[in-house]
């Protein structure tokens, strides 16, 4: 995509006003690593979002709040009580791209291979959107379809709020890829809440091997009230086909992808159960 | 086509230039400033030959628009030197270890290693491998490159950076 102008607003309000005025001729730009892969022959005006104070990670009450322009490498390096976001961030692309690529850029326009939407769905994250004032939206609503729909009028993603995991909560994510820097073939994320040795709540989400990231309600339902064991996880994972139609990929049949997804679901659930029992890394 | 007055620092010197906003940082460095040490390999952020330091972090200059460097500090391979202006410890250990064959990827690898050792002088071999995930070398098989970065880490500890 070609740029004809580069504008550096000084506030969210100014950025929104400029984008509203430009309409389809404007492009909000943070890391910009996807710019080269975006179609479009008509030059656009880039509106730089990196100077708006949106690069931060703060622990505020029951949430970690991550500014939308925070590079993935900062999230990867951050540590906090029962922080789990580093696990997936260190698996996204290369270190050099993570130094530039932002959390907002990854989730404002969701590509099929994106990992973060899967994690944020499982974590029950909240998204903070600026539309003249700040408003919050749950991950289920935000990722119900392409989030770019929310930003056509110049509105901007300001922050992502990740619930701080409690002592009996566990989180695990698995990304299956051909090599460390490759796009995902299957990404799975799972959040488990344990109570008296049983699963009291579960959120399991999948991405990459399906057209758009989504939760797996049949898998979640099969976990409820059960003891977290390999057998229970395998039985729940076998129901994933009820919720997702796995797509074939280059060099892989749909059947192979379905099998890879089931194995990845079991791995993610085991990681989540270990986390709930005290693993932190 | 619009123009943008880019004001940034490159290898410690202030640079002010009117540029086309569509110019990549790689084009700006190589074609406008004549800094040919930064290489174009894949042009898609996969090979790491074009790495530069942006405010101390390694980034792919092929994926970055030059305008994004406004008000920021760039260091290219030409700016990575020893304290006396001679070879940087990384450059010395790459020579000592025989870690260079055709050499095309080496500027990017030196930049990536420098970014890591600035941030984490006692980097482990796992840290080094993780940092170099985005650098492809089709000659050496990586072992000598990893050895050179490890050796340089010791050198940096003994003598101080650069």
Describe it for me?
The complex is a heterodimer of chains A (281) and B (162). In chain A, helix 8 runs antiparallel to helix 9. Chain A has 3 domains: 46 residues, Uridine Diphospho-n-acetylenolpyruvylglucosamine Reductase, domain 2; 107 residues, Uridine Diphospho-n-acetylenolpyruvylglucosamine Reductase, domain 3 (2-Layer Sandwich), CATH 3.30.465; 108 residues, CO dehydrogenase flavoprotein, C-terminal domain (Enolase-like, domain 1). Chain A is globular and about 55 Å long. Chain A has 10 helices and 12 strands. In chain A, the strands form 3 sheets. A 5-stranded antiparallel sheet of chain A has the order 4-5-8-6-7. With 281 residues, chain A is an alpha+beta fold. Chain B has 2 domains: 76 residues, Beta-grasp domain (Ubiquitin-like (UB roll), Roll); 71 residues, DNA polymerase, domain 1. Chain B is built from 5 helices and 5 strands, in the order E-E-H-E-E-E-H-H-H-H. In chain B, strands 2-1-5-3-4 form a 5-stranded mixed sheet, covered by helices on one side. In chain B, a hairpin with a 2-residue loop joins strand 1 and strand 2. Chain B is globular and about 45 Å long. The chains are: A alpha+beta (281), B alpha+beta (162). Chains A and B meet through strand 1, strand 3 and helix 4 of A and strand 4 of B.
Give a summary of the structure in a few sentences.
Chain A has 281 residues and is α+β, with helices and mostly antiparallel strands. Chain A has helices at residues 12-22, 72-77, 85-89, 95-98, 103-108, 116-123, 139-142, 217-223, 230-237, 254-276; strands spanning 3-7, 26-29, 44-48, 57-60, 63-67, 126-130, 134-138, 156-163, 169-177, 184-195, 198-207, 214-215. Chain B is an alpha+beta fold and 162 residues long.
Keywords:
heterodimer; A: 281 residues; alpha+beta; Uridine Diphospho-n-acetylenolpyruvylglucosamine Reductase, domain 2; Uridine Diphospho-n-acetylenolpyruvylglucosamine Reductase, domain 3; Enolase-like, domain 1; 3 domains; 5-stranded antiparallel sheet; 4-stranded antiparallel sheet; 29% helix; 26% strand; globular; B: 162 residues; Ubiquitin-like (UB roll); DNA polymerase, domain 1; 2 domains; 5-stranded mixed sheet; 5 helices
């Amino acid at each position: 995509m070609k740029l004809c102008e580069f504008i550096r607003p000084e506030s969210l309000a100014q950025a929104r006003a400029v984008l509203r005025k430009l309409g389809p001729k404007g492009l909000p730009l943070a890391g910009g690593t996807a710019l080269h892969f975006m179609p479009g022959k008509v030059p656009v005006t880039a509106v730089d979002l990196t100077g708006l104070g949106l690069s931060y990670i703060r622990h505020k009450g029951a949430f970690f709040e991550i500014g939308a322009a925070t590079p993935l490498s900062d999230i990867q390096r951050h540590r906090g009580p029962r922080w789990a976001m580093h696990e997936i961030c260190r698996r996204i692309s290369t270190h050099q791209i993570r130094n530039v690529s932002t959390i907002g850029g990854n989730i404002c326009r969701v590509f099929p291979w994106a990992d973060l939407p899967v994690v944020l769905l499982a974590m029950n994250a909240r998204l903070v959107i600026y539309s003249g004032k700040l408003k919050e939206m749950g991950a289920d609503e935000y990722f119900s379809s392409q989030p770019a729909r929310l930003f056509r009028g110049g509105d901007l993603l300001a922050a992502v709020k990740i619930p701080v995991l409690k002592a009996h909560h566990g989180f695990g994510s698995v990304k299956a890829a051909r090599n460390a820097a490759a796009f995902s073939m299957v990404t799975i994320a799972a959040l488990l809440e344990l109570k008296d040795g049983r699963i009291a709540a579960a959120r399991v989400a999948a991405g990459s091997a399906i057209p758009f990231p989504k939760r797996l309600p049949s898998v979640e339902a099969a976990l409820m009230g059960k003891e977290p064991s390999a057998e229970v996880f395998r039985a729940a994972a076998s129901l994933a086909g009820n919720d997702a139609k796995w797509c074939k990929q280059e060099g892989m049949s749909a059947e192979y992808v379905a099998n890879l997804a089931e194995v990845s679901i079991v791995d993610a659930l085991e990681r989540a159960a270990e986390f709930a029992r005290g693993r932190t890394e | 086509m619009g123009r943008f007055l880019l004001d940034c620092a490159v290898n410690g010197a202030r640079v002010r230039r009117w540029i086309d906003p569509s110019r990549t940082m790689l084009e700006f460095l190589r074609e406008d400033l004549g800094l040919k040490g930064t290489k174009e390999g894949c042009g898609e952020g996969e090979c790491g030959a074009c790495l530069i330091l942006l405010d101390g972090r390694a980034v792919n200059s092929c994926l970055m628009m030059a305008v994004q460097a406004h008000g920021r500090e760039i260091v290219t391979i030409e700016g990575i030197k020893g304290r006396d202006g001679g070879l940087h410890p990384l450059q010395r250990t790459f020579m000592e270890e025989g870690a260079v064959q055709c050499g095309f990827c080496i500027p990017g690898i030196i930049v990536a290693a420098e970014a890591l050792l600035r941030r984490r002088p006692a980097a482990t071999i796992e840290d080094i491998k993780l940092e170099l995930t985005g650098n492809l070398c089709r000659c050496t098989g990586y072992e000598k490159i990893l050895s050179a970065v490890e050796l340089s880490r010791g050198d940096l500890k003994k003598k101080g950076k650069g």
